[in-house]
Design a protein that fits this description.
The protein is of the alpha+beta class. It has helices at 3-10, 68-72, 122-126, 144-158; strands at residues 13-21, 24-29, 33-37, 52-58, 61-67, 84-90, 93-99, 101-109, 113-114, 128-133, 138-142.
Length: 159
């Protein structure tokens, strides 16, 4: 059974925080979002992989900022100094996903979540559990733990 069907079997609805990056729409489950932050000064992290934009201070906690555009291999529409940050929790650590814009919270029926078409890039498939067809666009659902796994895999290849 694939993960898309597993999610649909567990919960009747899916609540997603929507965001955009490079003209594409994405969503992350509300239960995984810790915070949404406006533009933040990002401190560089020496020797970090390209996907790690740096770190920010969130109420005394150091949060690693991940440049989602690098992970997905797309161009962003805003300057990184004006980017928004969607803070997600993974175990006890917090990570900020740098995006162009943050939209609304959508509540959808789980049956609206469909598997990714085989033509999608492998990198996108690696970090998503499905796609939702909205009236005017497609929304790719992101899995934060898969994003971290993809970055770790990329880092280990570079080492």
């Amino acid at each position: 059974m694939n993960q898309t069907l597993d999610v649909a079997a567990m919960e009747p609805t899916l609540e997603l925080v929507t965001m955009s990056l490079g003209g594409h729409a994405f969503g992350v489950a509300v239960r995984q979002v810790h915070d949404i932050l406006g533009p933040q000064p990002v401190a560089a992290v020496p020797l970090a992989c390209e996907a790690v934009a740096g770190s920010i201070n969130l109420r005394g906690r150091i949060v690693t900022v991940l440049d989602l555009a690098v992970v997905l291999g797309i161009d962003r529409q805003t300057d990184t100094s004006r980017a928004l940050n969607v803070v997600v929790a993974d175990d006890k650590e917090l990570y900020a996903l740098m995006v162009d814009n943050v939209g609304d919270v959508l509540t959808l029926q789980n049956r609206a979540l469909e598997p990714l078409p085989p033509t999608f890039p492998a990198g996108w498939k690696a970090i998503s559990n499905g796609i939702v067809k909205l009236a005017d666009q497609l929304l790719l659902t992101l899995e934060p733990e898969r994003i971290l796994a993809a970055i770790k895999a990329q880092t280990s290849k570079q080492a």
